[in-house]
UniProtKB/TrEMBL annotation:
Entry keyword set: Magnesium, Metal-binding
GO MF annotations in UniProt: metal ion binding; methyltransferase activity
Pfam families to which the protein is assigned, alphabetical: Methyltransf_7 (PF03492)
Keyword Metal-binding: yes
UniProt-listed PANTHER family: S-ADENOSYL-L-METHIONINE:CARBOXYL METHYLTRANSFERASE FAMILY PROTEIN
Name the UniProt record assigns to this protein: Jasmonate O-methyltransferase
Gene3D superfamilies documented for this protein: Methyltransferase, alpha-helical capping domain (1.10.1200.270), Vaccinia Virus protein VP39 (3.40.50.150)
Keyword Metal-binding: yes
Amino acid sequence: MTTKEILHMNAGHGETSYARNSAVQAITDLCEPTSTILPKSMAIADLGCSSGPNALTLVSAALDAIHHHCAQQQQPPPEVCVFLNDLPSNDFNSVAKSLATLKHSYGDLDDPVVITGIGMIPGSFYERLFPCGSLHFVCSSNSLHWLSKAPDDLKEGKIPMYDMVEHLRVSRRAAVGDAYARQFRKDFTQFLSLRAQELVTGGRMVISLYGRCSENPISRSNQAWQVVAVALNDMASRGIIDKEKLDSFYIPLYAPLENEVNEIIEDEGSFEINKMLVRNPFSGMDDATVSPKMIALSIRAVFESTVVLHFGSSEEIMDEFAKTVEQKLSSGSGWRAVLAAEYPLKSY
């Protein structure tokens, strides 16, 4: 079953401040280096907008940047059409509740950005979504590490994503990692090719996704779903979930190394990298305000739909899953040490 048929986020997840700042910078760069004049009309799209109160964060940042740029250049702001995309299973009802507020939020400004249309576009961003040459700016935050599907060669070869037997898990680690890397290359190449067709000449795109640090040996060998697999493995060992079902469970998620992202963009050839930033997503977290329980609940919100589809809908199973993740994060030297070892990610 493909990702677009099963995956959705539980409502309430926000975007990172890096993604917001990147969107502002990209809109500013949109008129450079050839001109400081924006077109009279623009279309912007957020791919993988999710749901909840922060679903419009990136689009709002882009509109703010357009308004600020036009004020600086003393030019009339363009008319803007906004598109919000996510998988059909996304909670678009909650997104719709925020759209009216977005459209009228610029009415009190001098020379406001005129939003002429807002559209919700359900579908996978690994498929064509818009007409050729129709978009001026595309953004996507915390979405592209999700694959179109888990690697077929693992499923066909009956190689578990995370083998319960440790020596088998270690011996197959490279094969599993390579299979996920190949699927990511295929999907990301497809994404770039499609967006190149949909963007106008000189259009801009900003993406952020979770990745791994190539200079960190632990990070190189681990996968983004490690913390989930460890918790499920623990539950299977205690008989809470079926061991055979665990062996056939695959999460369609891959966090690439930063050099992988560079190589795929260069090999595909449609885009030039204007700027790449890497940051530790856990560096700004305050131990006094962030607890293992809070992190466990966030992990549950992200992975619940995938876990439930495979192991069955059970509040007890998901409650135990969140509890097990919390226990893992609370062990040893605390959640920072556990995440650094099991979930060594960066976003860029």
